[in-house]
Amino acid sequence: MKTNWHECIQRYVNGQATPEEAAALQKALKEDAEMRALYLDYMNLDVALGAAAEAAAMTGNLPARAQASQIMARTSGWHAWLSWRPFTAAAAGLVAGLFCASVVWAYAGPWAVATVSQLFQLKDGGFEGRAGRVPSGFPMETGVWRGDVAEMTTTDAIAAKEGRQVLRFIEAEPAAGAPDGPADGCDVFQIVDLRPLRGAIIAGRSSLELSASFADTRRATGEPIDFFCHLYVCRGQPESARRQWVASPREALAFAAGGFTTTCGAEKAAWRTQTVRVLPPPDSDFAVVLVTAVRHGGSSTTPARFGEQFVDDVKLVLRTQPELPVRVTHR
Amino acid sequence: MPDLNDQHHDQFLRLFVEHEPALRTFVRSLVPSLADASEVMQEVAVVLWQKFGEFDATRDFRKWAFGVARYEVLTFLRDRVRDRHVFDDALVHRLADDAAATEQRHEAQREALEACLRKLPERQRELVLAAYTKGTRMDELAAQRGQTAMSLYKLLHRIRQALLECVRRAISQEELT
After folding, report:
1. What's the CATH code of the domain at B91?
2. Angle at A210 between CA A125 and CA A177, to 5 degrees
């Protein structure tokens, strides 16, 4: 009998319950305090699992070097608190590196009538500008894709998400500054100059959103691979980003990363879009955008090889929320 | 409207973020889906901020926020009264009372979940987290795993039941010690 109620409650939680099942559940909940306790425990678990999944996406599944970068050097008490309470932070819809005064705006964002502007400072998000290998190493100037072994190309494996070309991840290389370190991720970077936007970034109300669409076109299920996009916001000269990056990426003012794991094996490859968001201070100078394919769970100096994994349609937008109250309701 | 000074703002943020998980669980318990809970939570966050100027700092913020949230849930549900999955007001009030009374236990369960997730076999842990990742479609997840959606749901039911038993057990052991 108990098991049936477990099943019934879970069907309700999933949105699978028929109206008849919902009515039966309602009757049982009214009559039985123990049932209400069971139901409330399942609801609590539902919320906690959502927070755990979000926290895992932000931290647990990140490659080690990204995890290291998550702990921001310039912390307030809030950041320290967030670091210790990842589940709570995730539940609040936060990402590591948010500035404390911006939490509520980020939280209330979806309802707000926000202004959104595409940042043309991010160049060639569709990888259409040229064909062939991206130049090797970390970028030395803004507006150029550079990184590990990857190429801008057309492909028959999947229709481009935007335009004709896509970026194909080919092979991982060790992180800059650690030539003997692990080579698990094929990283491709672009530095984006934010200085022209200074008048448009409003503290606590403006967010930078990075989105990228990834595809794994393997037909058969294979070794798991993680796709990530990272967004770092920094102060200083963009031209010095390389030195700053190699020295310590954790010096960024704000950071967000998001990703997912794929083993593929689907009949038809599909694009999946990942979005991350940070709240930049108004005097931000530049952003570093990173898109990467990473060998899942690995830490090996044998370079991870890819070839059937792609990214396309990378976008960076500035979203500015109006001041609260964000929505007027008439009751 | 509260003054937009930093101190006031920080005070609200600190309280809101501290109590947000409890508030979200409270709201989730009263509405049919996670998506509904997110929608109501957006409204609750805005109303709490709008009314924060009236909040007496010597009072219990959580209790005050639960009161606001209960009102917002009832308003939300009244617009959906024809949906036969929506519970009636009497049950919503009863569940709200029970949820408020059991929040400490739920907080302990949320704390225990991390350890319980670690006890799951890796594949099960990855599956349940994938299922709860934003944007995941169950039919696509099932297809990726070569399963039917129905068999995936059944597996998830078993995993969730195991997790629930684990967090309940963890709390009762904590109470014993």
Report:
1. 1.10.1740
2. 80
- Nearest CB partner across the interface for B133, out of A7, A23, A57: A57
Query: Model-level pTM greater than 0.80?
Result: no
Q: What is the largest CA-CA distance in chain A?
A: 69
Where in chain A are the domains? 2-58, 63-320
Tell me which chain B residues have a C-beta less than 8 angstroms from the C-beta of A326. Answer: 46
By C-alpha distance, which of A216, A46, A64 is closest to B128? A46
Are B21 and A91 inside 8 Å of each other by CB? yes
Look at A266 and B143 and tell me if their CB atoms are within 8 Å. Answer: yes
Q: If you measure CA to CA, which chain A residue comes closest to B3?
A: A324
pLDDT per position in chain B (177 positions), as tens? 444 455 666 677 778 877 888 898 999 999 988 888 888 888 888 888 888 888 888 889 999 999 999 999 999 998 887 888 889 999 999 999 999 999 889 989 988 998 899 899 988 998 999 998 877 888 888 888 888 989 999 999 999 999 999 999 988 776 655
Which residues from chain B sit within 8 angstroms of residue A23, using beta carbons? 84
How many other CB atoms are found less than 10 A from the CB of residue A7?
Answer: 14
Q: Do A326 and B33 touch (CB under 8 A)?
A: no
CATH architecture of A63-320: Sandwich (2.60)
Q: Looking at the structure, do residues B128 and B89 belong to the same domain, yes or no?
A: no
